[in-house]
Each structure stands twice: as C-alpha cells, then as structure tokens.
Amino acid sequence: MGKSMLGRSVPGNSILHRTDARIKFVAAILMMVATLSIHDVRVMALFVVWTVLLMAVSRIRPGIILRSVRPIVVIILFAVILHLLTVEGHVLFQLGAVKITQEGLLSGLMTALRLTLMIINTSLLLTLTTTPLAVADALESLLSPLRCLKFPVHEFAMMMSIALRFVPTLMDEAVKIMKAQSSRGANYDTGGLLKRAGGLVSILVPLFVSSFRRADDLAIAMDARCYRGEQGRTRLYASRLTAGDLLFFAVVVLLLVFVLVSRQLLPSLGSLLGSTLSVF
Amino acid sequence: MIEFQNVSFSYGAMQGQRPIEAVRQLSFSIEKGSHVALIGRNGSGKSTIARLMNGLLLPDEGLVMVDGKLTADDDSIYEIRRQCGMVFQNPDNQIIGTTVRDDVAFGPSNLGLPAEEIMRRVDESLAMTGLLDLKERPPHELSGGQKQKLAIASVLAMRPDCIILDEATAMLDPVARRDVMALVGKLKRQHGITIVQITHHMEEALTADYVHVISEGGIAFGGTPASVFDQVDRIKSEGLSVPAHLEIARLIAARTGVDYDREEIISFEGAVRFVRGVIAKYAAGPINACVCKPRFDKSQPAVIEVTDLSYAYPTAGGPPVEALHAVSMTVRQGEILGIAGHTGSGKSTLIQHLNGLIPAHKGHVVVLGRDLSEKKEVRQIRPQVGLLFQYPEDQLFEETVALDIAFAPKQQKRSPKEVERAVLRAARRLGIESILDRSPFELSGGQRRRVAIAGVLAAEPAIVILDEPAAGLDPAGRDDLFKDLLTLSDEGATLIIVSHDMEMMTRYADRILVLNEGEVAGIGMPSQIIASAQFLDQAHLDMPAPKRFLDALADEYKDLDTSCFNVMDAVTALLTAKRRVHHG
C-alpha cells in the first residue's frame, strides 16, 4: 500500500509529463483550491470533463490514477454520510430519527466528487507525472526568493527528495524488524495501550539506529560523488518555460477564476452548501 | 595512480576520545590501469584505507596522493573524488536518486556539467552497465545486483580513472556477484580503469594483478595472487582462506613430491591440468577413501511437516506474485537442514511460514505437532522456533547486551533467575559473556551478529532457523560461527540454515532442500544434491569447488566418488581411487 502511494511516478512522455514541474506544482495548488470551491452542479460537470481530459492526456492507465484515491476513501465516505444525515430539506425517506433528504444526497455527492477530483488532479500533476527529484527541483526554484531570508532552500529540497527516496526502504525495514522481534516473542496485537506502546520501542529503536547508519552511509556516498551542496551544481530539471507550459498554466488560472466567479454569479445551491465547505 | 607515504590514521582523535588506530605507517602505491585487491579480516583497516584514497578521510600523518595531487589539498579534492569513484557494500545506502536516471545524474550534476551532457552520460553509463531498460525505475524495484551495477554506472558517469569497490559484492548472491565482477573486469580491459577491490571472497582476489593482505592497519604481505596464495599458512593465520582448487593442487603436490608451478595452478583449469599430470604418473593406492557418512537419521520423529504449501504475495494493483508453489517437506528432530536457492527463490517466504509470521493459507504447516493455520497454535509455537533473519544485528535495541539477549526469555514470563541463566547460557555458547554489560551499539559488526543470535537462542527453542548467518563475515569468522552453532545440533536441537553458499551447506548440512522459483527442485543428502551440475545450474546455485575439481578429473578414473565436500577428502580420493589404465 505505502509503496503505491508515495514517491511513485509513472514513466511516460505525454504532454503532461513534459510540462514544467514548477508549473505543475503551482497548478496543483491552484486546482486544489478550485476543486474544493466548486459548489454548482454545472461547474462540477465542467471539472469532471476537465479531469477526464487530463487523465486522457497523461496516457496513464485509469486504474493506476484512481488508485491514488484509495487512501482517502474512508474520509470521503465519512463526509458523504455526514452530509446525508445532517443536511435539512426535502425528505426522500425516513427511518426513525434518520432522515435522508434530497439536498443531503446532492451535497454528499458533491463533496465526494470535490475530494475525488482534488486528489486526482493533484496526484496527476504532481506524484504521477513528475519524478520526486523534479518536484524537489521545482520546489527549490519556487522557494528561491526565500534565499534572501537565509532560508536553506537547496538543502530543504535535497532533504525532501532523499526522504522520498527512502520511504520504501524504511517501510521494508520496519516490517523486517517487526517480524524479527515477533520471532523473539514480542506481541504487537494484544495487551493494553501501555504495553503496546512499550512494544513499539523494540521496533523504533532499531529503526532509528539503522536510519542513522543509513544516513551516515548516504552522506559518505554523496561526498564520494563530489556533492558539495548547491555550489556549482547543475539543476537538471530547471529548464526554461515553454509556450505550452504558459498556455497550460493560463487554462488552470482561468478555471480557478471561473470557479470563484461562479460562486458569486450562480447562487443556486451555494447558500446551502457554503456552510459545508467550512468542514473541509 | 594512487600513492600512500607513511600514512597513519586514527578514529576518534578529533572528539577527544581515546583514539583507535586504524591505519599505521602505511606506504604503498597502486599503478594506473591495474587491478589491486585488498584482503584481510573484518576490522583490519581495509575500508579506512579505501576512504583515505579519495579523501573521504584525511591522514593524521603522512601523505596520500592521487595522480600527484594531495588528498589534503582542498583545491583538488573534488577532482580526486571524480577520478576515484567508490562503490560501497550496502546497495540501498548509496543510491541517492529516486529513479535510476536521477541517481546516475547525481554525480555529473555535482560537477556542474551542462544538462544535455549529463543526459548523454546517463545513457552512456547505463548502456555500459546494461541497465538502459531500467532508466525510469525507482531504485527499490531493482535487485541487489542491479543496484550495485547502478552504483557503478553512477560512478562511470563521472568518467573516473579508478573505481574503488569496498566489499561491493558482499551482499549479493553468487550469480549477481559474478555478474558484477564480469562488469568490473570489462571496465578494466576495455576502458583501462584502475580497479581497487576490497573483498572477503578469495576467488575475486585471484583475478587481480596484485593482492595486498591487510592486517592491523598495515600491509602484512603482498604480491601477485600466485605468490600470496602460495603462502597458505600466512593466509590462514590472517583469518583468510585459500580457494579450494589451489589447496587441492598444493596438497597433491606435497603428497606426491611433485613440484608445481604456482602461476599455473592459480586458475581452476590450471590446477586441474596440473593434478591430471601428477596422477598420470602416480600409482594408485587402496580403493576409495572418500566416504561421506550420512548423518541423517530417518527414524527420528518429524518436527516440521509442510504439505502442499503455496503462497502468493499481494501486490499494489497488479495480480499477486506467487512465491511458493506446492512445497512439501519433512524435517526430523536433530537434523541440520540446509535450504538453498538463489535470491527470490522463495527461501525467505518458506521460513516465515515455519513460525507463523506468514499464516499458511493454502496447504498445511505442522510444527511440533501443532497446525499453524490456527492462530492460537502460532502463539504456542513461537518460543519453540527461533528464527533469525539476515543481518540480525539490525534488530538490537536494548541498552546492554544482557538486556537484549534477555528480551525473548522475558517474553516467555520466566522467573528472573531463569532468564539470567538462559542469557548466560546463550552468551557462553557464542563466546560473548565478557561483553554482557556493554551497549550493543558500540560493538563491532561481528560481535553484534553474535549478540543477535544469542538473543534468539536465549528462548531455548527446539528448532533454530538461520537465514545467511555468516553473511559479510571474513572466512575465519564464518568458520568460527558455524562451529558454535553446530553445538546446538549436538545437543538435540533441529537446525535449518538458509544460504546460497553451497560449499558451506554441503560441509555442514545433513540434508539440503533446493528451492527454485518457489518450488522444491530437490531434497536429499548433500552428495545427492550436488550430484548433477546441470541441476545446480538450473537452480542458479554454484557447485562446491572440491566436487567441481573432482568432476573435472573423473574421466581419469574408473569409478571416482566425486561427492567430496572438503579439500582433504578430495585429495585422498584423487590419490587413492582406482584409475583407468591409459594405453600408449
């Protein structure tokens, strides 16, 4: 599970893969705001079309893209149920104190769609079509104004990319240590909270120790390959923006503006759902 | 290429601790374009010497020069590191990039090369190492051998003159090891790259132009492989070993009084040729002394019964990957069972079923009469089955060695007195009773390995399963550890040893089970398992050298029993078996 989520880009050479990582990074943030701000069914329909288009352009199998929604399915379900049960309005059917209303159903569905679209958009733009190193490079470039404030931008970006690189390695390591301690009689499934927390020590200490050792090894390996921080280093993915990049960015900005303006101009469900936005 | 002048180096000198001397008054040089091997015990200072070569460490005294540039000179340090690339032991801890491509690009980007040039070099290095197809893959999807080749590719992208391999093959299986060594040989021949290789595998040192034996931070002796490995007593007193074919040839020469040419017998083929010549002139003695006593006792009760066990790993999204298919086996009380197989053959999955870490979904696992498909039985069986994973020293966590060893018996809710007794017994067996009060984190790797093993034995399990217990140890360390472990079997415990080292398995196991692609390819006594070279080859396992040697000479004999596992037996067989009479 963990392996499928973090730091997992799908190789490809689609337009989306080739789009500048900085553009995709900012676009992902803008799309996050935009999708969460949708409150009109028609606008939602437009965004569904946009998302499907984006999926098609990425040339990644839909199954892989949809898998990125899996980790938050529980949250989505919870939100839908909350809406179903709490939104007042035209009652569709009733069971004791539980009332399902037409408005509740609709706003529940809207919330589910909002969250789903948000995840698909951000993961398509960031994790799936952009390698973590490209993301880190983009971040470094975007944060570079902070250099004036003495913020260690390069180090921060390098840290991120190494962290991403080692997530799967450390996951495997944690599983291995847990199994080793289980073989020595440790029991992580039963016992009170305190006992279980105590049991964690036997996993966390070895995991920390080995992480430090790995960090040590890695630092030496980086030294051996002439790493000396930012000084004189080529940034591989910091290419110049193309017209295509800018066009893509313009479309994303337009979409965001459209959503925000539509909130003012299309007050159909808005008054009702505006409150639900605050939940997320 | 590289020159050491009177170099000394101590660890801890800076932090104000008592310094530990690692390199002492060392002077030597390495010629451009040569292949130099450094061999020596764990902790002899080999890695320190390697790190002094490219300025990762700087000498306390003396000078280290690369192509006339001082490593202590700040202006040339990066040029030196570019020139002398380094590949380390642990494949995981030296890959920086999140994809193969990014990792290869890391070095050249540090050199500040233009992006197009970097991409060109990435492709070039990946092509040289045969990894071009894996360019976009994340490193954790690669095999150990591929990861080490990636580390080499990453070094190549900086266009080095020299590659330093610091036990780079130690964590690989034999097939991957040969693969990496073949690549290294090619780089030397075709591109004139100097190779400095630190290794515990003596066969690898044989292919070098020059061998230095390192001891206590200095060079004990050195020379061509032929001259170094000719000094058998010195090699052994340094805790190292001599490749089997060399030893057989030398022993035959000594027994028959025939002179040998040490350059000739350095290669396996040369040694066979030499022995063939000797036995042609030598009169055969009494028949067949090579008796391999079967120790396996069929009448003992079964302690483990696996029937028709299959297992498939779930994968993210894709179809499950089958790791075991219809595996059946019986392990009898007191026997030493070897489980052999290449990386990914299902060894690790199989042993995890034996103490219920992986529940048996398809098929049955019965251990000491308990069916492990039931959860409550698993809890009962855990203390009875000690399972030790590869590199078990990673699981230590307590403040002292004694506390760590006590972890398992404490989980069994034994009285403090009993726990103490169990700890002492386990510590004594592994010869670590003098370090019980120390912190496990300040010990050497070999000592920590022993502590971890004691931590499993302290539960006093009836069955002990060890996955590659000797990985990464020097030859003498390997033998010592096995001797200590074999005392368990003498006392009635059942031992299961997982390894791809066939030479060790044939020497110690009563029976060997060979796994290949998740299926049992064969199970039987060592002599049966190694009878067919083709069988081992299909399972990607190595034929033990003594047997390979005898096989090469079998045509000289009427009926040579080639199933010998050690050098002495092989020599006796060669000198005493009935020979075919050659006419003309």
Q: Would you spell out the secondary-structure blueprint of this structure?
A:
The complex is a heterodimer of chains A (280) and B (584).
Chain A: H1 2-5, H2 15-18, H3 21-37, H4 41-58, H5 62-67, H6 73-86, E1 91-95, E2 98-101, H7 102-128, H8 132-143, H9 153-183, H10 193-224, H11 243-265, H12 270-277
Antiparallel strand pairs in A: 1-2
Helix pairs in contact in A: 3-7, 3-8, 3-11, 4-7, 6-7, 8-9, 9-10
Chain B: E1 2-11, E2 20-30, E3 35-39, H1 46-53, E4 61-66, E5 69-70, H2 77-83, E6 84-87, H3 100-110, H4 115-129, H5 144-156, E7 162-166, H6 174-191, E8 194-198, H7 202-206, E9 210-215, E10 218-223, H8 225-228, H9 232-237, H10 244-256, H11 268-281, E11 302-313, E12 321-332, E13 336-340, H12 347-354, E14 362-367, E15 370-371, H13 375-381, E16 385-388, H14 401-411, H15 416-429, H16 445-457, E17 463-467, H17 475-490, E18 494-499, H18 502-508, E19 511-516, E20 519-524, H19 526-529, H20 533-538, H21 545-553, H22 567-576
Parallel strand pairs in B: 3-8, 3-9, 6-7, 7-8, 13-18, 13-19, 16-17, 17-18
Antiparallel strand pairs in B: 1-2, 1-4, 4-5, 9-10, 11-12, 11-14, 14-15, 19-20
Helix pairs in contact in B: 3-4, 3-5, 4-5, 5-6, 10-11, 10-22, 14-15, 14-16, 15-16
